[in-house]
Write the structure tokens for this entry.
Amino acid sequence: MSLNNRPEKITSTAATDQRSHQIPTDSIIQILARLPVKSLGKFKCVSKEWFRIIADPYFLSLHNEFWSRNPNLLIVRRSFAAKEDMDKVYFEDQTGEIDFSPLKVMNVHFRFHQPYPLWSIKLLPSNGDLICLVTPKGYHICNPSTQVMKLLPKEDIKRYEIFGSAMGYIKNSNEYVFVHLFRKNDSPRTIRMGCEILRVKDGEEDYKWKVVEGAFCPFLADSFGIFVDNVFYWRSSYQSRPVVLISFDLENERFGSVNPPYDLPYIDWRVDAHPHNDVLELGGRLCLVDRFTIPHTLRIWVLDDPKNHTWICQYTIDVSVYPKHLQGDLCLLKVWDEKILIDTRRSLDYYHMETNKIERMSCLTGEEWQWVRFHTTSFFKLGSK
């Protein structure tokens, strides 16, 4: 939908043009559509006409269209309540805070405090309006655009699992789906994983977990879930034989499995091979990262045919420009404008697909951060207010 192809619902009037210093309503709409949510909340008070424009469903769709093409980078850092606590970062009794500092257009700074050890606070993979932190207390969803955070209801099956959690966005229904995997038995020899899901819709407050009856998986998840084409994927634990990708089809609510590429070495699937970095979504496709077959090289495998488990090696990235101790920690974030964004925890770099070169975004170097996410400015409401 183009900003210039609007319906007649939002019309221009002489009175409006006079109040706006003769600026046409079309121009006002195009300008406002490029502003972040927090600014638009203030501009609603300028006049009744601006309030009507900003609240109009068509304007909201224009705003979403523009920001979907121009996402923000969300930088998440860990900080502490007091300077004297800095040397206690690795202590399990340390109380930490999560410090959000988005870049680009968004000028936001706020904190999230939880009385838990820092290692137990995780940020789920995401690529949309909302982000989700998982703590021993539960799932904390947040819209950085509005700075609203909400704790989801406690899971029906109260088994805290670091891995096995996932979130995904369904565009057709404008809702987020959260998945929690849990062990259905306590036997160390036999693994039976169950599943419960929760759906969050724009402006609704009645959230409730639903245990998926009859769905179980014989593999233990060893990664956070990735959502691609209405299917969640997890990497199975290195303890499982054989090691596979666990799949959960959201439409029929059934588990399945996907075999990895035939020549992906077993070392990639060990518990120390950074499982949260090696299963990811790039360009709307499920990918696996092979860090060990070729020295100083990342091979990115793409699931070309989910039904027949066909993989292709789409990209081969030479990472010899990085020190050897950093090569295993490089996190691939997103394919954008023929580039792959790479997170090194201290800098963000671009791999250019055409030139096969890596360039650094020098403006982002400096203090180490914990996570980086692409984030879309959005009016998505966590509740009715």
The chain is about 15% helix and 35% strand. Confidence is low (pLDDT under 50) at residues 12-17, 82-97, 101-108, 266-276.
